[in-house]
Design a protein that fits this description.
This protein has 171 residues and is of the alpha+beta class. It has one domain: START domain (Alpha-D-Glucose-1,6-Bisphosphate, Chain A, domain 4, 2-Layer Sandwich), CATH 3.30.530. The chain has three helices and seven strands. Strands 1-7-6-5-4-3-2 form a seven-stranded antiparallel beta sheet, with helices on one face. Strand 5 and strand 6 form a beta hairpin. It comes from Streptomyces venezuelae (strain ATCC 10712 / CBS 650.69 / DSM 40230 / JCM 4526 / NBRC 13096 / PD 04745). This is Coenzyme Q-binding protein COQ10 START domain-containing protein. Pfam families: Polyketide_cyc (PF03364).
Length: 171
Amino acid sequence: MSTVEQTIDVDVPLRTAYNQWTQFEEFPKFMEGVEEVRQTDDRHCHWRTKVAGVRREFDTEIVDQLPDERVAWRTVAGDVQQMGVVSFQPLDEAHTRVRLAMDVEPSGMAEKAADAMGVLDRRVKGDLKRFKGYIEEHGRESGGWRGRISPGGADSPDMTPRDDPGSTGLR
């Protein structure tokens, strides 16, 4: 398994950066190769990607989510094996450090060669740069989900719907 770690500072408050990251269906707007993310419930998403002409579909599960601190996930179905965590640290009232760490198991010769050449590191770095541009350009989040998902499967009783008072759907 390969480990990737990248960090970027964004010029928005912590709450804004965190809230935007919880909008998983917006990921194709700033993540290269991600064609679609469909959230199936508070814990699960279905992903469709196309990288170097290879299409993949897989499902992820949020295993730990603490508002304004972190979102951790793992794959649970499909031909992609990965797990990771994105964490958020306030630098001051208007700036946030976003750190992404993930373990990925490359499959096939092409992916293993690309991994050896640092392609995954560069892709994650690029995705974070595009996230920075996306959130800074908009200046505010497109929504937010402030619920708590605890490791081990028990959600805390303070689980709340989206921040957006007009929203009734998922994240």
